[in-house]
Amino acid sequence: MAEISGASGNHGVVMNIIKGDPNDHKDDSSCFVSVPFVQKLIAEVLGTYFLVFAGCAAVVVNKDSGKMVTFPGIAIAWGLAMMVMVYSVGHISGAHFNPAVTIAFATCKRFPWKQVPAYIIAQVLGSTLASGTLRLIFNGDQDYFAGTSPAGSDMQSFVLEFIITFYLMFVISGVATDNRAVCSKPSI
Q1: Residue 81 forms part of a structural domain
Q2: Both 29 and 42 in a single domain?
Q3: Is residue 185 scored above 50 in pLDDT?
Q4: Does 159 score more than 90 pLDDT?
Q5: Where are the transmembrane segments (predicted)?
């Protein structure tokens, strides 16, 4: 394997470009950029922060504005925030933004277990900072920011969250881990 290292500007950011065996000319298009682990963690913090901030802000604004955003509007806000963050930092960290996603990828052997605790800490930090920012921006009683807990029991909340998380992980696992979805070099 050939390895090329260099510094980017005066910032000292090191980027390693690893290419396949120099004697193997079958696939010269496979060039991988290894991003330092700290940058991955920063990407997870920022991605989770903006995702939670945008999604939860839509919920809070909906409560403040007398249901002007509506539930479809809230769902669209979450979906668009996720799409923007995946496109923005997905190439750096993998765009997990959720401990359930990180654990699922590690369980499927698509992510190293040794990086799981750091990713989860980064995600919890990002979501906590986003929630704190919303708490500082919007006024309201302490229970005003209770989230989306239903009026039912704790068991109903648990079952609802379990099903929704299963659905989320089913879609993510199907899309992100399917080898048939990997783009190949187009034939001319």
Answers
A1: yes
A2: no
A3: no
A4: no
A5: 41-61, 68-89, 119-138, 158-176
